[in-house]
Amino acid sequence: MANERWREPAEIVGIEHLQQAIWLPDGRRQSMDVPVLTARTKERMRTGHMCVKCQEPFEHAWPKLCHVCGCRVRSEQAEYFAREFGGEIHVGPSTSIDEEIARMHEDLEREQKENP
């Protein structure tokens, strides 16, 4: 049996615990954890050799559907990959801390003038 490198599983090096959560109707909190993948695994997903949703490896790139989770690989994976791994996303205010502090001082001065 030849070495079938395409069968190699995704390389997960850790789990990132996101600060996002969903509150379920029964009061439970569902947090979101995402696997931290190696660059090689991400490249296999980018080139269509692995499912971006369930990390199933493919013998041939860009099958129509993932045979495990049913993801539409050929028609949707590139867009999903770009959205999930397209670079760093800034989270937080669009101003620096110094700008925010200055704005807060201005707001305080304005409020003190309006309500002596």
Q: What's this entry about, in short?
A:
Helix content is about 35%, strand content about 20%. By secondary structure, the protein is an alpha+beta fold.
Descriptive report:
The chain contains three helices and two strands, in the order ββααα. The chain is α+β, with helices and mostly antiparallel strands. It has one domain. Strand 1 (12-23) and strand 2 (29-37) form a beta hairpin.
Side-by-side strand order of the widest sheet: 1-2
Percent of sequence in beta strands: 15-25%
Largest sheet, described in full? 2 strands, antiparallel
Please state the structural category.
Answer: alpha+beta
Q: What is the succession of H and E elements? A: EEHHH
Distance between the termini: 85 Å
Q: How helical, in percent, are the residues?
A: 25-40%
Mean pLDDT: 85
Features:
116 residues; two-stranded antiparallel ribbon; elongated
Please write out the topology:
Blueprint lengths: L11 E12 L5 E9 L1 H8 L26 H13 L11 H18 L2
Antiparallel strand pairs: 1-2
